[in-house]
Amino acid sequence: MANTALVVDDSTSMRQMVSFTLRESGFEVIEAGNGEEALQNVAGKDVKVVVTDLNMPVMDGMTLIRRLRAEAKYKFTPILMLTTESQDSKKQEGRAAGATGWIVKPFNPEQLMQVISKVVR
Fold first, then answer.
1. What does the UniProt keyword field contain (predicted)?
2. Whole-prediction pTM
3. For 23-76, what is each residue's pLDDT tens digit?
4. Could you report the per-residue pLDDT of 92-112, keeping only the tens digit for each?
5. Taking Cα atoms as reference points, which of 94, 78, 99 lies closest to residue 27?
6. How many Å apart are CA 32 and CA 26, to the nearest integer?
7. DSSP run (H or E) holding 41
8. Measured between alpha carbons, how far is 35 from 33 in angstroms, rounded to an integer?
9. In 3D, which of 42, 33, 40 has the Cα closest to residue 13?
């Protein structure tokens, strides 16, 4: 059974780039364009890692992380924030919300997979 990743980004091209990278590494990918769509698409499913953008319409990444952490099923799931935001205050807010890691865009596929290999078991 393949590992499943949830990729959340309102940018279709970014979402496709992250998904392609994960699929090339053997992941099945569930995609969503915002936090609300992510919650609907992932409901009850097993995911090994979540990669989410911060700034999105409808529901942002911080709110998504808080909502996922509130569910027992996703309490310990690694959640990586992939965003253009690099301020320490945002990173601290992310940690407080439950983010496992923070990657600043633009990313390169090797960097993304190195981080994912450290958090997915």
1. Phosphoprotein
2. 0.93
3. 999 999 999 999 999 999 999 899 999 999 999 999 999 999 999 999 999 999
4. 999 999 999 999 988 889 999
5. 78
6. 19
7. helix 35-42
8. 7
9. 33
The burial of 12, by beta-carbon neighbours within 10 Å (0-12 exposed, 13-18 middle, 19 or more buried), is given as exposed
Q: What is the mean pLDDT of the chain?
A: 94
Angular region, 36: left φ>0, alpha ψ -120 to 50, beta rest: alpha
* 109, amino acid identity: P
Q: Please check the confidence at residue 1 and state whether its pLDDT lies above 60.
A: no
Residue written as tokens 């990918």?
29
Q: What is the DSSP letter of 83?
A: E
Q: Which tokens belong to 78?
A: 């690694």
3-class state of residue 45 by DSSP: coil
Neighbouring CB atoms inside 10 A of 34's CB total: 20
Closest-CA residue to 111 (of 77, 80, 90): 80
**Percentage of the chain lying above the pLDDT 90 cut:** 90
